[in-house]
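Researcher: Go.
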Amino acid sequence: MNGSTGSTGITGEVTEFLTAALRRPIGPDDDYFAMGLANSLFALELVTFVEERFSFTVEVEDLDLDSFRTANRITEFVLRKTGADRLTETHDQGA
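Model: Structure:
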């Protein structure tokens, strides 16, 4: 699996987006909502980014703020939605 589709690649892309959008360095586990850097309008922007970048629709039932609080949580969400978590688990077990 190449880096752009693996979890490391997803996290990198998400942290790049967050750093640019929030205009400060954001780490993979930084909770930008708790830090007061993000609001509900930014949450909509973030959902739109995830949908467009990773080519799937975030459904109403997916709109749990906990899934979008950190870059690592977004990565887990993307992997679940795209089914890539099953590929990663299979790959990791075979390693």
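Model: Residues 48 and 58 are 8 Å apart (CA to CA).
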